[in-house]
Amino acid sequence: MLVDDDVEGTVARLKAAGVHIISGPYRASWQPHRIAAEFRDSEGNCMVLASPR
Fold it and tell me: How far is Cα 14 from Cα 21, in angstroms, rounded to an integer?
């Protein structure tokens, strides 16, 4: 999991750069105060980006 203070902004920048966003931003079910998103890296791996605690 990657941690970022601005998940929404980072997802917008990733989309603009052509990164495949799988889902999100959304409230993380495992910790509802966290915002999370999933995307594919350049190797096709699923990566999770989430706000800090």
Answer: 8
On the 0-12 / 13-18 / 19+ scale of CB atoms within 10 A, 4 is middle
* Contact yes or no for 4/10 (Cβ under 8 A): yes
Domains (range + CATH), the chain: 2-50 (3.10.180.10)
Residue recorded with tokens 């910790």 = 31
Whether 50 and 4 have beta carbons less than 8 Å apart is answered as: yes
Pairing of strands 46-50, 2-3: parallel
pTM attached to this predicted model: 0.86
Is the pLDDT confidence value at 30 over 90? no
**Cα–Cα dist 38/25, whole Å:** 8
